[in-house]
Amino acid sequence: MVLYVIGLGLGDEKDVTVRGLEAIKSSDKVFLECYTSILSVDKKKLEEFYGKEIVIADRDFVECQAEEIYLPAKEGNVAMLVVGDPVCATTHTDIMIRAFELDIDVELIHNASVMGAAGSCGLQLYTCGQTISIPFFEENWRPTSFYSKIQYNRGGGMHTLCLLDIKVKEPDFEAMKRGKTVYLPPRYMSVNTAAEQLIEAEEIEAGGAFNPSETLCVGMARLGQKDQCIIAGTLEELKEQDFGEPLHCMMICGEVHDLELEFLRNFMVEGSKFKANDHVLQGALAASAAKPQEVDNDE
Q1: Model confidence at 160, in pLDDT bands (50, 70, 90)?
Q2: Whole-angstrom Cα distance, residue 13 to residue 164?
Q3: pLDDT at 293 over 90
């Protein structure tokens, strides 16, 4: 009697590991968490390949009926399928904590995730700092809490992995006012939107964390899939590029090693105006702005 939390990787139904597939086939119930990420194939293809019926665990299910996932593991094997790797979202951690509290055996089966696949662009993962999430800006809500983390990372020469917002099964509040339960169409933030919001964040904060027309960034789409797309350039340049279908993410570069830059040139916007290692200049400007002015007491 085990709750298996199984990573599916980033591509399609065939990205599951052999160990993961064996666990799925041994399970009495199989759930697919599709709230925190998406695969490039639908439920039917997964069911055909795994030979199991799958229950979709959407946002409402995960937030309001999570016990239906872990409680059956007290009497049999249950598989919770997670796009990417199981330990990259707090949603899955919460479910595992609840299972631990009930003395339910939990077995993790790892797989590729965006946290590792982002290295496809050539930037070294061990030089990354804090990962940030960029939410969709709304008319009256334009949060920039991620800005200080970018500033901290680049101040130490570290790259910043940016995970972009996903809106799935969001309620239509206008319809709810009329007594109807209606959900808005899914939205997936593009690199283009993220670049525009980052530029706006710099205008708001004005802390010199990055320069939209000089700082080197990398936009990535559909990592781990055959048609993955990687484009490097400044924020001003990336907001004009075509990255195609979701899911997207991006990197804001810190200190770039010569080998990293050599690799990145394979994806560079033609004629890019980026300035490598501009974080040194940006950090100096920020420090200068923060330094108290000396007073000449002789005057």
Answers
A1: very high
A2: 23
A3: no
